């Protein structure tokens, strides 16, 4: 990794090319873990705001494909898996901020938990607020308590999953296809939440790698 994050570089070119050429699963896994550890270690040792800004908005300018190539095949309960989950969550939130905010708001209104507080969302949380929340969660990985950021993301997922389930119940008789899509979405978010909680525990135990 270079000493500076020159826009729009996120990883050293040679490292990325090396990854693309490696089809061996062990090689893919090794590079995923190495790049995740190098990136996190670099920015947390020198958390300048301009560096973190570039990391948070990297996928806005460059797409999520490069990060997916690096980390999406890692175990979801690993350091690269955790980073990938948060980047993916942010990308999906921004992709349809209106729906994301609608489902999250529905979840806050019906879930009898403190998850909305843990996530740190304002009430009400419209599209602008929900995108800002996703940014803050990702930023927290780099300049805050890593485990807390993961727990906030997990709470975000649980609230949204609860909202998706509620809306699915509402529309099941009218649009069963939409209900099915929302049910699948809720299930995936619930699994992501469980993985993020596990990652937070591993991080606190010093064994998330």
TrEMBL record:
Q: Which domain of life is it from?
A: Bacteria
Name of this chain's protein? DNA-directed RNA polymerase subunit beta
């Amino acid at each position: 990794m270079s000493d500076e994050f020159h826009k729009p570089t996120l990883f050293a070119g040679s490292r990325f090319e090396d990854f693309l050429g490696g089809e061996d699963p062990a090689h893919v896994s090794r590079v995923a873990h190495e790049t995740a550890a190098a990136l996190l270690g670099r920015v947390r040792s020198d958390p300048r705001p301009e560096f973190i800004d570039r990391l948070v908005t990297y996928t806005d300018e460059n797409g999520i494909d490069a990060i997916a190539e690096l980390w999406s095949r890692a175990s979801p309960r690993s350091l690269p898996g955790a980073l990938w989950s948060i980047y993916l969550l942010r990308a999906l939130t921004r992709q349809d901020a209106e729906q994301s905010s609608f489902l999250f708001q529905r979840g806050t209104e019906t879930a009898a938990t403190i998850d909305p507080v843990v996530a740190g969302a304002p009430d009400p949380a419209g599209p602008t607020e929900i995108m800002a929340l996703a940014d803050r969660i990702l930023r927290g990985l780099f300049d805050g308590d890593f485990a807390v950021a993961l727990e906030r993301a997990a709470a975000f997922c649980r609230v949204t999953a609860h909202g998706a389930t509620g809306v699915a119940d509402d529309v099941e008789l009218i649009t069963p296809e939409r209900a099915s899509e929302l049910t699948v979405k809720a299930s995936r978010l619930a699994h992501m939440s469980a993985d993020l909680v596990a990652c937070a525990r591993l991080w606190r135990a010093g064994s998330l790698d």
